[in-house]
Protein 1
Amino acid sequence: MPMLVSFCEWLENTPVGMFISGSTWAFPTIESIHVFFLVVVVGTIAIVDLRLLGVASRNRSVSQLSNDVLPITWGAFLGALTTGALLFSSKATHYLGNWPFRIKMLLLLLAGLNMLIFHFLTYRDVHKWDDRSITPGAARIAGALSLLFWIAVVGFGRWIGFTVR
Amino acid sequence: MLAEVAKFCDWLSLTPISMLFQTVEWIIPAVQSVHILAIAIVMSSVIMVDLRLMGLMGHSQSISGMTRRFIPWVWWSLVVLLLTGLILITAEPRRDLLNPVFQAKMVLLVVAIVVTAVFQEIVRRNMEFWDLSPSRRAGALATAVLSLLVWTAIVGCGRWIAYVEHG
């Protein structure tokens, strides 16, 4: 923890961190770009999740849909990560101590873990259930958890703005 | 005109329902979160259709198939956006109605709705419309670029409302 605090203190005092916190337009601009990328991340992940849950895109195979959608998701995630890091650098110590921020980071970790488990275990035999509208239980659980985690990420993300000082 | 809007804002912000939204602390963040989730559905649906129109992805599905899969979600999400938006306006009328960025956002929204509705109607009448000639393929590209630009500007305005001085 002390290492994390001193890292955040250093980050706030880098030219980038100081520029963003000192400028009137930099933070809102980067934040708008962050919102754009994050809605694309959440929305495109939801498209795959709803297919896994058998709610939408049932006429398309899971692998085909994933191959169409997930490159967009990854591109947008990279954008959200970069802009998020820039926003963080402007008030790093404040975010570090902010509970909604901490919970959001934990939820991102859980969403990533859920995705890894799905990708390396459940998805391995996708050829057996690719075209079925009812997917195996493990895939449905992964889809439901993913939706839940990402909805919560948005909620806690918005909450940061109301609580960080 | 502006004075009347200001008067309406002051009246609205003193109604019991507005006062309730103002005093219960979790209402605004929660409603904003739902608003953002609905934007996520709109943006990703629009991106799916537009990237397909531009020929950048999804060749395994037709333009009309893509339209039928995603555009209805845009309309349903817009209903959610309208309702949550109305709650946010009721909670803080001056912050929105007297805000030039909010006004710009509403103009852009009308443009986006018209572009999306016209596009959907064209595809409904003739499923192959966009593939019939090179000039129509150019039209598809232009429609997709316009749609992406307008929706992205709407998201940007939405966030900037919070940062602009208002009456």
Protein 2
Amino acid sequence: MPNDDVKIKVRNLTKYFGDLHVLDNISFDVKKGEFLCVVGPTGCGKTTFLNLLTKLIPPTSGELYINDEPADPKIHNISFAFQEPSAFPWLTVEQNLEFGLKIKNIPKDVIKTRVERIIKLLGLEQFRKSYPHQLSVSSEQRIIIGRSFAMYPDLLLMDEPYGQMDIKMRYYLEDEVIKLWKEFGSTVIFITHNIEEAVYLAERILILSNKPSTIKKEVVVDLPRPRDFTDPKFVEIRKYVTELIKWW
Amino acid sequence: MKKTAAYDQKRRPIKKILNSLLPFVSITCLFLLWFYASNINPDLVPSPASTWERLIQLFVKPVNKMNLFGHVWASLQRVFIALACATVLGVTVGVMIGWSKTFKAIFGTLFELIRPIPPIAWLPIIIMWFGIGEFPKILIVFIGTFMPIVVNTYTGIRLVMPLHLDVARMFNASNRQLLFEVAIPSALPPIFAGIRNATSSGWMTVLAAEMIASKAGLGFLITRGMDYFDVPLILVGMLAIGIVGALLAIITEFIERLLCPWNKKLEQD
């Protein structure tokens, strides 16, 4: 991988909660515009790993670099799609999508153009004046994803955003996230416990070990899109990743 | 199983009609009871007819140069002025106690100490300090309306979902933006519930204040009725209090629906 392509560098990331050693010396790079999935056994510290990348909680040691600078939420644009439904109930769909952009004091005309683009891409035209509680849970989750992409983030972190969806809705939203990612060329780190989802979405999968977590293996997924769950190559990669995660 | 469901569906419209009729039934029962009681002792319990006559007479021969509307307006004016001041000050103080730990440490305990004192208990001391003019009455109502607004605002701010604050922090929101873009909008439904409580509490307080020292207002009308043994006038005053109080509740709820359209609780009602 040529170095000028690297957008994100994570170096020696370590986290202790008191005596509990959760993450151990994790280092990896993410290319500009890459879709990276992180999988691992239940309770291995996936969410802690992501929270450290958001800079909401400090690591015990290690650093995250964006464009070779230490990541700083004041300079860099890090966006995070939370696991729980986190749309603001007092704002309409349109206002929710505008929220982050307004906070960052982006000019009004830019906000308008970006939000229109997201609304169009997600097919939310008829819901633009609706409040989140008037929508289904899946539509609410689409607002959250849209809100994150609207920031044109340097790094977009997603923490199992479809964990609460049924399988049909999941497939639909996975395609939608791919559509947005291709359109915006964002650099995405997507955490999931669902191996099939990881193989479907990722260009590369990082497999975490049990606690204290390290990177056990990197798997490159070079299947063409749209991907087919029944494609023998797809099944082969899925089985391979499953074997690597098995702790039993 | 099917039979039961069909039976239930058939019964549902009947139940709906019955439920919509029940309020009229209860009001009719109250009137019948009133008729019955007025037959036993018409001096102490005047009949609905004589109460109605007294109401008409109030327009022909006003009490203290004011008809019923004049007295209602006199009471309402006091409530509105006090409520406006209490809303501005109460929301500000509530937000400050809810948002700033230092402010809570300074004023929280003090507020908890003053809060249980009912507004009426302030009456004697306020009359002694400020006399019996318009200001002391408004001040009493202000005390009655200020407390529920502060408590609800404070609670609303404390209950802001940490997830919502985290989302805003993720977008690098400043402390000011966290307060004005997340905490206050999120606390608006409880703040409005506080204003609704304050309106009814203010309405009760103004009447009590007027009953002690006043020359206009519904509380004054009732006291005048008691002084002159004019029981129909007391009843006219009481009925007006009930009707205006109910109208105030409807108006505040309407404003709340207008300003907090996302509030699920209102939609369910």
